[in-house]
Design a protein that fits this description.
- The chain is an alpha/beta fold.
- The chain folds into three domains: about 5-245, Glutamine Phosphoribosylpyrophosphate, subunit 1, domain 1 (4-Layer Sandwich); about 255-450, Glucose-6-phosphate isomerase like protein, domain 1 (Rossmann fold), CATH 3.40.50.10490; about 455-595, 3-Layer(aba) Sandwich (Rossmann fold).
- An eight-stranded antiparallel sheet has the order 3-2-4-1-10-9-11-15, with helices on one face. Strands 5-6-7-8-12-13-14 form a seven-stranded antiparallel sheet.
- A hairpin with a 5-residue loop joins strand 13 (about 220-225) and strand 14.
- Helix 8 (about 260-275) packs parallel to helix 14.
- The relative contact order is 0.09.
- Bound molecules: fructose -6-phosphate.
- Fructose -6-phosphate (F6R) binds next to helix 10 and helix 17.
- InterPro entries: GATase_2_dom, GFAT, GFAT_N, GlmS/AgaS_SIS, GlmS/FrlB_SIS, Ntn_hydrolases_N, SIS_dom, SIS_dom_sf.
Length: about 600
Amino acid sequence: MCGIVGAIADRDVVPVLIEGLKRLEYRGYDSAGIAVVDANAGDVRRVRRTGRVAEMEAAAQAEHFASRLGIGHTRWATHGGVTEGNAHPHVSHGELALVHNGIIENHDEQRDRLRKLGYAFESQTDTEVIAHLIHYYRAQGNSLLAALQHAVKELRGAYAIAVIDKRDPDRMVAARMGCPLLVGLGEGENFVASDVSAIVSSTRRVIFLEEGDTAELTRDGVKVFDANGAEIQRDVHVSDVSLASLELGPYRHFMQKEIHEQPRAVADTIEAVMDNRGFSASLFGADADAVMRDVEAVQILACGTSYYAGLVARYWIESIVGIPCAVDIASEYRYRDVVANPKQLVVTISQSGETLDTMEALKYAKSLGHERTLSICNVPESAIPRASRLVYYTRAGAEIGVASTKAFTTQLVALFTLTCTLAKLRGKLDGDIEQSHLEGLRQLPGSVQHALNLEPQIVAWAEKFASKQHALFLGRGMHYPIALEGALKLKEISYIHAEAYPAGELKHGPLALVDSDMPVVVIAPNDMLLEKVKSNIQEVRARGGEMFVFADADSHFGESEQVHVIRTPRHVGVLSPIVHAIPVQLLAYHAALARGTDVDKPRNLAKSVTVE
Ligand code: F6R
């Protein structure tokens, strides 16, 4: 969703801001803008546009924007429509400019108060309130930092803020509560950003601001203050985000690139297990043994694709560990009366580590007394792992395409590692079985690559899907979540309406939809449910439906005019959902390509969903 970048330097920062905003585009946005302090003219200049960053960049170039101090923003509309007037930065009295991520809950109250103090509002946003509030405290004789610190005390809600002021051209200030914000440390120049990718070509040395922190940046230094206003030293991290992971390279889309990166992403994610020569609690954190040893049940909380990863894990945990596992959509869990069990391990799964619903569900679980919390996450130091006791980082690398692909398969790897670890701690994983699961993981990157090699056959199928309006996905057992994931991928990037059902449920309703216009995708690996799936397929066939079956090499599926089959090279046992995720990703990608949609930035969607 929204993104922030800011820079103070001895060089023109406009290219830094524009590049940063381009790197933040993947998060999803509908308008963009920058504001700079023009020291020569003693002015704040601003340019904003709805639409792409490139349009705003062209306008900034046409107006010869250049400055040594500036802030930029990509906005995903919440309060107020997608208009230039609502785009950030917001300016107060032509003097200070501000960008903001998050939502201010008491904006109405503050707006009334500021109106009485003579402030006029130009936008419908909650953000403009903050700009005026800081201006108000500035007018009381406070420094820019003190004015920000006064103002944030009066805000309720979530914010990451960066502010510049034409009366103070050698300073930028920033604040964070509930939304990520980091400070980048350069040589004679410093930066703020909501996401390290925005500044990684200028510096890799970053300080992640903590809740309630404020910061003051000059060209020569950075000071951080805690929620009480006391100066504090925060750790400096060196980010390992690679520039290559942020570039398209030879690919046409990030989604395509990320689908093809999966053998590497899976191999990187299992590396720690391989180095450790087995499953152990220490993979999840220093006190993981104490946290996990007497766990009686698992509660998984996540949204979207991450939730589907959790659904697969339920099958693994209940069958391999032998303890109950519940999986909840985070936005449902957080508003339901939950019967808490302190011996439950609460596992949140999130690619971004920022998803608000997942974060709130975690906070709710903690408020109920759940102390055993584990985050499976792809973004180091993001909010959800920071709020969790244990962490397992997937090593998928930056995921830029809005549709999650490599994050999903690496989440599954992490969840399988968790399953085996819990089983081992409970004496349910003898040496031979552990070795065979380790071998399965070792072979997995190769099996994923074999599945990727099916792409040419899938392209041919995808062309048939391009003209369809609806599609049905079927799976059974631990492949039912893969059917769900396939349907989600198809609908979000190709806009073809798709539903997923457990194949056994077909005759209880959805069979009524089946006709020759409704393609039916079946995930049919060679497992104990194969014969059941085959009978379900007959039900579709008898109603004239056209079927597209993903099976394993040894599944013995007969092909006909109505039944098309693509075979993954071999069955990989319990890890099969990971391999079967690949063909449904490719099908969605190529169907979207054939329909000419914006694959990496599907309409109405954002990469990081930081609002409710
Ligand atoms: C779908 C997709 C979303 C995310 C969901 C959760 O392709 O990407 O459904 O999975 O928004 O996001 P994270 O995993 O960042 O919490």
